[in-house]
Amino acid sequence: MQEQLQKLEVELREVTKNKEKLRKNLLELIEYTHMLRVTKTFLKRNVEFEPTYEEFPPLENDSLLDYSCMQRLGAKLGFVSGLINQGKVEAFEKMLWRVCKGYTIVTYAELDEPLEDPETGEVIKWYVFLISFWGEQIGHKVKKICDCYHCHVYPYPNTAEERKEIQEGLNTRIQDLYTVLHKTEDYLRQVLCKAAESVYSHVIQVKKMKAIYHMLNMCSFDVTNKCLIAEVWCPEADLHELRRALEEGSRESGATIPSFMNTIPTKETPPTLIRTNKFTEGFQNIVDAYGVGSYREVNPALFTIITFPFLFAVMFGDFGHGFVMFLFALLLVINENHPRLNQSQEIMRMFFNGRYILLLMGLFSVYTGLIYNDCFSKSVNLFGSGWNVSAMYSSSHALAEHRNMVLWNDTIVRRSRVLQLDPSVPGVFQGPYPLGIDPIWNLATNRLTFLNSFKMKMSVILGIIHMTFGVILGIFNHLHFRKKFNIYLVSVPELLFMLCIFGYLIFMIVYKWLVYSAETSRVAPSILIEFINMFLFPASETNGLYSGQEHVQRLLLVITALSVPVLFLGKPLFLLWLHNGRSCFGVSRSGYTLIRKDSEEEVSLLGSQDIEEGNNPVEDGCREMTCEEFNFGEILMTQVIHSIEYCLGCISNTASYLRLWALSLAHAQLSDVLWTMLVRVGLRVDTTYGVLLLLPVIALFAVLTIFILLIMEGLSAFLHAIRLHWVEFQNKFYVGAGTKFVPFSFRLLSSKFGDDMA
């Protein structure tokens, strides 16, 4: 490869050099042609009337300034012609006047078109000059001045025949140079095209070789300096593939000594490898952006596949908008093998890489849009409303029922601007809508009040369930790493604190939904008042949701109060107890259990007695070495900070889930505003101009819907869903302090072995 490239380089340099010479000669000939054309108008000599002069005598015999001598002997005129840069004309003329003391006649004219400088290649404006001088000495001075100002001097013909002959010769040479240049460029293009065919393969080969040598430089020699030793991490499931690859490599390379592999024990924390496919890769990237999981830690990406698009859809709930997003993502999924999508611009490539996330987000938005019964801010009556308006008329009921109910008649209907449906009237409310919100709420004036109450309670319920699930996942971490004391002293108190306060809040919401009906809704107590009253001593008198409510609330508060000191002091005191040599209940060190290297918790566990494995001299020596490193104060401070963060975070994180309600409300209101200001205006125009006006109105509505509601609102809901997962969910169990396993692969050449190794 090196020989081919050197040969190609020499050939290209030679051809390019010849091309530049030909191009320079061509530019000089073109300048000479322009000079002859312009100077022809400067001086017209008639050969028949041209007098014959003697040669000017030498300077030693007569003085040049002796005018009588010049007049007596005569002097031959000399000419210097050429081209000069436009910016140097004035200075050039002054210099000639001062040096030659007026014994020159300078005539110049500007060229019509700019020409390229043969020396620099710059296209500039030129002036053609013709200098007439007396005497040979002045001629030398003129030529030196022309050289100083970098003028392009060309021979000036003495006769018309000579001018014509030179002009014809120049034209012939210019045509020949054009032909030669054209053939040279064709040859150069052929050479470059042939070289370009192998450039990509050569670059790949060089990058692969550099990558291989880079990895070999990370290996170490054995004591004999005859073989390389590489210490690598390998997934346990791929060990047989590694052995097979080493055997095939040794066989194909013809090595006399085959390569072999041994597993070695280590105390270092292994990197984290999570195998993904094109569907799960996007969700795993969302989790990895927060932090790569520690070794064998619970991976939240599995649950994020469902919870992330669902929480997004709660904020973005609209059947129409979700269906448009679903179609866009489906189009990307169907054409995912198209080469233009893989090589598209950065923004489009981001959409393409997250096509499966967009697909689920759109699908879940369709589902929540059906629940909200919202399609481009309008409701869809699929199953028929559960409310009956005719049952509110007085004619539908007996006279005895008129006294206890507020019914309608023709007068009330005509005079009232707002009519209220009373679900306590028999026949008005016939049952709930089969799926989602009843479409009649789209016509109600108190629709926003009803939906706000529903979405706010729904957000609180979803948030508490989401956070509780995160605490439960932490239990699986403790079980896997065989730290059961963390379950009893950390996870259980956290669950009790969460459920005794906020779990009870969910119970009150659901209980009120189930127990109280339309007939008893006026006497139903406020959940907010009851929840606040739970923390007051003495509690204010309220109706209560159920009998014995006060005793239940006192019990829950006592459990909450007892869980706080356990959460603060339980784990530090237990680790101190282990450090002092007591037996450990439910703690063992069999297998790999290291989460954070040299953490205080690991130090205390290493210093404790191991029930399952028993004691041995090695462990005793390790215990003696690590006991001195145990720092109770640091462990206590860490646990106190974690406990305070958790207790306060339960309140703030629950309030943070109200963003589900806020963004859902904002999305619905923006959609309603677009419909009201555009489509409704277009539909209210009469039939004469309505069709003509409706087309641009619908087009504008579609553009604003895509850019405002789909892109901007979608991005906002996407970012809020990420925040809910990172801050409110993953911090309950996910450490994210690991190192990602990035094996050697030629696929990483473009990013890892690019410019940094050049």
Describe the structure.
The chain is mostly helical and 758 residues long. It contains 23 helices and 8 strands. It has helices at residues 2-39, 67-73, 89-100, 136-148, 160-217, 239-253, 281-290, 301-316, 319-334, 339-342, 346-353, 355-372, 410-415, 447-480, 484-515, 527-533, 549-579, 600-606, 617-627, 632-656, 659-683, 687-729, 749-752, and strands at 77-85, 104-110, 115-116, 123-124, 126-134, 152-154, 220-221, 228-229. It has a 4-stranded antiparallel beta sheet, with helices on both faces. It has a two-stranded antiparallel sheet with strand order 3-4. A hairpin with a 6-residue loop joins strand 3 and strand 4. Helix 8 crosses helix 12 and helix 8 crosses helix 21. It is extended and about 140 Å long. The two termini are 18 Å apart.
Strand content: under 5%
Helix fraction, binned, reads: 55-70%
Distance between the termini: 18 Å
Q: What general form does the structure show?
A: extended
The Rg value, from CA coordinates, equals 46 Å
- Secondary structure category: mainly alpha
Number of strands: 8
| Helical stretch tally | 23
Largest sheet: 4 strands, antiparallel
Low-confidence stretches: 45-74, 583-598, 607-628, 751-758
Mean pLDDT: 83
- Widest sheet: strand order? 2-5-1-6
